[in-house]
Amino acid sequence: MDKLEKKLLYILKTTGLIILLLIFQIIPVLLFNIDLNKLSLLQKILYLLITDIILIIIYILIYKKDITKDFKNYFNKKLKNNLKTSIKYWLIGLVIMISSNYIILILTKNGLSQNEEAVRELIDKAPLFMIFESLIYAPITEEIIFRRSIKDITNHKLFYPLLSGLLFGLMHVISSINNYQELLFIIPYSAVGYTFAKCYQKTDNIFSTITAHAFHNSLTLGIYLLSKIV
Prior knowledge:
single chain; mainly alpha; globular
């Protein structure tokens, strides 16, 4: 198998993983003719939780060898330094994201993307489930796809983080694009994705970005929950 054939296979593999991420929750609905409208809120949450756990297991099994190696290398005697690297790149992405969101707020008078509004609505309805989604599900599945899988396609110093960040940003707004203003939110999401990709390039360890992603989601989730209490 030559390099071109390998690249095509990696592109198909990554595309399949992205599609699976987007549609996996509705596959059981179609296969078993489940009517989600007839389920109670608790039943819906349990359904989503089960499908998400299954998807996490699928992604981990696909990259089992690399994930096992990265886990041992990240959570070792150098854990403190590894955490510093994760936090460093997360903070860089956070600053860029906040800055770009502020500019979007000035331009559109709306500082929240529809994706963020949908997330906050779910937090209000099922906070414990969203803690799992934010701190475990999203960091693991999204980092495996948008950092580890895309690295198989290209690890070019400049193109890899750009592609990784752009696809990451697009994924977060694709389901809610209904006007040009919503497209602007690709920028802050892509900024975080870009810095996560640079972190992965530097460390060659997926847990560096899973950790950074979890830090980011913990902060945004914590601030929102605190605002509800105060």
